[in-house]
Write a structure and sequence with these properties.
alpha/beta; Glycerate kinase, domain 2; 6-stranded mixed sheet; 5-stranded parallel sheet
């Protein structure tokens, strides 16, 4: 009997990781009715990670009132088993929480992400995984830090709250720092290596994606530099130079500097949490995939992480994608044996999205009939 592990990432805007995995499993079962098929939803630490990790029965889903990027009061979900917790920043401070025409790149705050961290700590969790993909903010964690009791002050001693005013920051005040995170290990799931400031920093690389104009991008980059100087003076080290410090608008900088948080590969953290290595033991194949496979897929995304872990265990990986983009071949170097797109006839992107569940099943069936028919 063949053992197949299906570990699909989400098809953004189309299918959750669990739904994509379920479709692939149906196709495999049509080709191999007697196969032992395990569906393991995965994510790379960005949007959708919370739902992927819900498959762990020990986790309970909680909700907490938080502040959205535009200042509205909303409710956000997180997971906890009383010992460890998972917080997804996008659910409290995500780009999709504000309608596109109403986004204000220099006012968007990460305060809600800080509130969600505190809510997780109140469940008794001593280890928190913070997934930072999909954020709306470029405030250097200014809002999050405020929620955790870190005050950034201007020359007159007034508090600085918003990214548009970061250039006024002269120092960080830790006198009101929360004690709720004392003794709590915070790990930050991150899949990029950008520094906080400069040509490859948070504002210049990602600011326009969050609605910043060219002038605002420069304002934000200068402001992040001032915030970083204040953090360095208070903590004695340049945390803005850490690989990944520029992810999610720099939210990891105050967490690393004042709470000892560590940045780690998002997919590595997720696979460890899911006990992926145990799940693929003695497997014949792993089927992985995502909505689009291109040159970025080999740079710390879910598919590359799965490929590397499976290759180390001697298990071959097949990838199924909604579509293939430039440089998709790079994932071959990450342990992926073959890559397949789901279309089975000429069709538009809209048609492919609408039919994605059956196209995934059909593609998986064709692959495994070829392998074992």
């Amino acid at each position: 009997m063949k053992k197949i592990v299906v570990a699909m990432d989400s098809f953004k805007g189309c299918l959750s990781s669990a739904d994509a995995g379920g479709s692939v499993a149906r196709g495999v079962a049509r080709a191999l009715p007697d196969a032992a098929i395990t569906v393991l939803p995965v994510a790379d630490g960005g949007e959708g990670t919370l739902d992927a990790l819900k498959v762990r029965a020990a986790y309970r889903e909680y909700s907490a009132p938080v502040t959205a990027p535009d200042g509205r009061a909303i409710t956000a979900r997180f997971l906890s088993d009383g010992k460890s917790a998972v917080v997804e920043m996008a659910l409290a401070s995500g780009l999709t929480l504000t309608p596109e025409g109403e986004r204000d790149a220099v006012a968007a705050t990460s305060y809600g992400a800080g509130e969600l961290l505190l809510a997780a700590a109140r469940t008794g969790a001593r280890k928190i995984l913070l997934c930072i993909g999909g954020s709306a903010t470029t405030d250097g964690g200014l809002g999050l830090a405020a929620a955790l009791g870190i005050r950034f002050l201007d020359a007159g001693g007034a508090r600085v709250f918003y990214a548009r005013d970061m250039e006024k920051i002269v120092r960080a005040d830790l006198s009101e720092k929360t004690e709720l995170l004392d003794g709590v290990t915070v790990e930050i799931a991150c899949d990029v290596t950008n520094p906080l400031c400069g040509p490859k920093g948070a504002a210049r690389v990602y600011g326009s994606q969050k609605g910043a104009s060219p002038m605002q991008v420069e304002l934000l980059d200068r402001g992040l530099g001032r915030l970083n100087e204040a953090v360095r003076a208070a903590a004695g080290s340049d945390f803005g130079a850490l690989p990944g410090a520029g992810a999610a608008g720099g939210v990891s900088v105050p967490l690393a500097a004042f709470f000892g948080a560590r940045l780690r590969s998002g997919i590595v953290l997720v696979l460890e949490t899911l006990e992926f290595d145990k799940s693929i033991r003695d497997a014949d194949w792993v089927v992985a995939g995502e909505g689009r496979v291109d040159n970025q897929s080999a740079q710390g995304k879910a598919l590359s992480g799965i490929g590397k872990r499976a290759a180390a265990a001697g298990v071959p990986v097949l990838a199924i994608a909604g579509r293939l983009g430039a440089g998709y071949e790079s994932v071959y170097e990450r342990g992926v044996r073959g890559i397949f797109a789901i279309q089975n006839k000429p069709m538009s992107a809209e048609e492919s999205i609408a039919a994605a569940p059956e196209l995934l099943a059909d593609c998986a069936e064709r692959i495994f009939r070829l392998l074992y028919g």
